[in-house]
Every structure is written in structure tokens, then in C-alpha cells.
Amino acid sequence: MSEWYYVDGSERVGPKSLDEMASLMNSNVLNEESYVWTAGYDNWARLGDVDELVKLIKAPELPPQIEEEEDIPPIIEEPEIIEYSWDTLKESDKVINVKIGLDRGGQEVEYGPYTMSEIRRAFSQKRMNGKTLVFIPGESEWMFLSEVSIFSDLFPKKSGKSPVIIDQSTKEKRESMRKPFIAKMFVHDQNILLEGVCRDISTGGLQVLVSNSPFSIGEEITLNVHPDNTDYHFVANGLVVRNLDANQGFALRFVDLDSEAEGAITNYLQSH
To answer: What is the rounded distance in angstroms from the CA atom of residue 181 to the CA atom of residue 220?
Structure first.
């Protein structure tokens, strides 16, 4: 039986049998970087280069694999909802949504998200104006670009008055606009269950933000909406009428909205 020696600091330790060497290796006294010697070797050798010793190192024990139980629904991870404010928004935050239409007297179309510098560049190129609507997650409603303090440099005051004049009809239209409604939402049909964030809601419809939206225009689905405040929870059917840019969600029109769901939405709009 071969006898082995190893180096401990500046000391030579041994002789040790193979069984003893195996015990020392598996208790982490020795490792692959330790130096060892036995009869027949010209010089000390690195343990990791000695096959006779390396094969004695036990493989680490792995925890037993947990078999997936059948008939258990998968866990749905809740999306992280990050809220912002205009006062603390950073130049690099790409979270500003823009709504074009009211500023030009045409149909409303939503774009974004953009950073502050991108908004300023679009304004300088006259692709936006003071009546362009903007919104960030965390705020309670859409605002005119001219009303947002961080963009005040775009609208120098003249004679103490804002350059954007809002007549009463425009004000009333803005007050009746659909407001954002941040909530967890379960969206499903016969085969699909998703979790998303709904916004821009009215009793006529809403938008749903989800990654890789699977729905097609004209498809009817059911929503089960769970905002943080349970007073506004509702269930409704809706028809998909538009897909958002980059397939990041869809716009939906409610179908046969019942009185309970309509009441929950109306109560939310009146209280916000």
C-alpha cells in the first residue's frame, strides 16, 4: 500500500494511507492546490494533478429534485409597479407617455415612453406643443406639457401670463378624459391568464399594459381588475380595439358593462 506525504505550511506531514488522504481531502484539510509526494515521485506534485488522489474526492451532495405535482397552477409573479413624480423625475427616466390629438384637434393617439430630453427635442421640432398631454406612472392624471414644472424652460412667460390659453370647452374636455388606473389585472379567455397594469380608464374602455400581448384586434376577453383599493374592484368583458406600440399592451372597449362594474369605475373617476 502506497504511503503519502503532504505539505502543511513549511512542515512535511506523513506518511498517510490512501484512506487517510481521502479523509483529509473530503474534510477540506487538503485540496487540489495542496502539494503531495509518494515513493517514485522526483519532486512534490500538486494534488489536483494526481489522478490517484483526485478520484478519491467525493462529489458534493445535491438536494433531492422536487418533482412537480400535477394539477397545481403555476405561480404568477406580480409585476413591479414603479411610481414616479414630476418633481423627482431624472433626465434618464424613460417613463413619460405622450398623448397627441387634443393639441391638434384630432383623434387621440398615445406614444411613449420617452425621456425628458426626448420630449424637449420633439418640442423643438414642433412635433409637440403646450397642449400635448403627458403622463408618468405615479401621477393621478394626464397634464398639459405647459403645466409640468420641469418643462417650464420651454414656455417662457410673457407679461406674467402662460403662452397656452385653455378655453372652457377645452378644460371641460380635459376633465372628462380617461384617467390612469394603476392596478393588478387578471386577463383571461379560454386558455390564457395574464397579469398586467391597466390605465387610461373610463366607463367606455381602458388600456392594458402587458409584455408580449397575445390578443388580436376584435378578440373578446374577460378582465378581473384588482386595484390596491378593493372598493374599485370589478369584472367586465371587453373587445380588443387596438394594439399598443412594440406589442406592450392593448386598448379595449367594454362590452355590456354591468351596473356593478360601471359603479366601481365611476366611483374611482369621481374620487380621483
So the answer is: 21
